[in-house]
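Chapter review: from sequence to fold.
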Amino acid sequence: MSPARTRPDREELYYIADLAGEAGRHEDVVKQLKQIIEHYGPRLSTDERSLLSVAYKNVTNTLRNSWRIVDVLLKLQSARKGRIQLIQRQRQRIENELAGVCKDIIDLLDHDLLPFASEGEEKVFYSKLKGDYCRYLAELGQKRDRDRNADLSLKSYKLAYEHALAMLHPLHPTRLGLALNFSVFYHDIKKSPIGACHLAKSAFDDAVFSLEGGIDYQTLQDSMAILQLLKDDLILWSGET
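The token string follows.
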């Protein structure tokens, strides 16, 4: 008779995940946090879901940057009649890997995290994440796939934003981070600098008017950093309207 399997300690799983993050092994972070979900259920702590978000972000940022570099090289070589097929092959390899990572977190969100998310910040956080990774997919592939993923991204962002407006303080970092990324969606995917500026300015103004509210120092520091990014985007995009 085989011995009964013991459930791994949650704190140890988190510690290893955190250690992997410090070492830059972001795929290992994801594996550890998936073990927490498997053994303890889909309700992650704030620190756990933050670590999950950062891990996926680091993996996809590396791949997105690689894809952009190869895409630029492809355009340059197309003008020079260079080794186009080899570059196309490499771009497709990166694109497939990036799409796989995006689909992995979207699947995790759809089947585990979002259905069990509590009302308020947790639901906004996960809905924003889905919007982000559908947006990344909307940058890739054939037009039909891009349009479908753009629609999914818009739907997720809208759900998150409506919920954030109803449930979160205007200075809450999750609400501001959502506004920042949602405005990028309008600028980059919808090609609407007017829509992007309107959303960013609305979020910025609401936050500034709420500065007297009871927000703790660390939260305020986080919020001010995002407000600066919103301001930078507004300055950049205002010349396009």
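Two observations follow directly from the output. The radius of gyration is 20 Å. The chain has a mean pLDDT of 92.
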